[in-house]
Design brief:
There is one protein chain. The protein is α/β, with parallel strands linked by helices and 393 residues long. The chain folds into two domains: 3-54 and 297-392, Aspartate Aminotransferase, domain 1 (Alpha-Beta Complex); 56-294, 3-Layer(aba) Sandwich (Aspartate Aminotransferase, domain 2), CATH 3.40.640.10. Helices cover 38% and strands 19% of the residues. It is built from twelve helices and 17 strands. A hairpin with a 5-residue loop joins strand 8 (188-189) and strand 9 (195-196). Helix 3 (55-67) packs antiparallel against helix 9, helix 10 (297-315) runs parallel beside helix 12 (370-392) and helix 11 packs across helix 12. It is globular and about 65 Å long. 47% of the residues are buried.
Amino acid sequence: MNTIKLTDTFVTPTYNRLPVVFEKGEGYYLYDQEGKEYLDFTAGIGVNALGYNHPQWITATQKQLGQLQHTSNLYYTEPGAKAAQKLCVQTGMEHVLFVNSGAEANEVAIKVARKYGHATAPEKHEILTLRNSFHGRTLATLSATGQDSFHQHFGPFSEGFDYIETNSVSDLHEKVTDKVCAIMIEIVQGEGGVIPLDVDFIEEIASVCEQKDILLIIDEVQTGMGRTGKLFAYEHYGIKPDIVTCAKGLGNGLPIGAALLGQKVKDVLQPGDHGSTFGGNPVATAGANVVLDSLTEEFLIAVEENSLYLKEQLEALDEVEQVSGLGLMIGVTFKNMTAKDVMLKAKEEGVLFLTAKDKLRLLPPLIIDKKGIDSGIACLKKIVTIHNLEGVK
């Protein structure tokens, strides 16, 4: 029985998988079992920040695996301590709690916000998020997600969440009450269609939080770890969050998430308030240290330069209607083609893209360069040219 048949027979079908089995990767390329090469503009949905077979990352994780693969958080290990230090030093945050995923990091943020609010007033428990947001697939993070399509089948959902219309300052002020303990936002709504928030809206949220002692939580699960040309996307806007969540690119392929806690909330959680069996796993954090060490100023400048180049090349395509996003997190709509159709045709041409709502979504490894970008653009040009020629017939 081949891999596809084996998976379809025995694995719960919660994913719409494409019929390709990947065997290895190198740089920003993947290779299937037949040896076919695929240019990767997905990075495992924003995870493989340093691409595939990165030498320092491989060395660090293999070395740690050979020394100690796991112990419990009843003890100390060095890789997690160093990764936490780097995150705090580079952001000015105070504490880090490691978990295994973005949804878990957001669960931590929710718990910290609720405990902080309850210490102020018993009714101060409500968390505001945005319409069109996405914060995870656990019951609490689904409840925090501001998309009705996710609020089905699994109810009753967790109480204590309300949703602000995205980029609406008036709705922000209407929804803020004495019950609100936190506002959670994504700087760019990834799963919601690669939609950046307006600068004025971001600044007003930060101002309201400061004035009313409301915690500002920024979900950087997809936007963090250099994805936008900064370590975290909020750095583009000169604001200071109380809690930042991250995952995906932090591990470069190994499961890890983190909640970064600022001065106001650094001591909110005490022993017994939260736990994670695998949180801060030494192998995962050994890899995270390589990622953090790699995100130098020079590296991040290259991300910004390549993102501008990629956007310019996309906007120059006649069939492209709109390009949205920030850094190497880009959404594209087409005039006469659906994003799904483009994605499927590109896969046959050996280029991998994602979709988000009605957009083609580009999340390449951060090591992508102009050569890789040109190859991806050439593929899109070929697809739209063939489509337009077929339309003429």
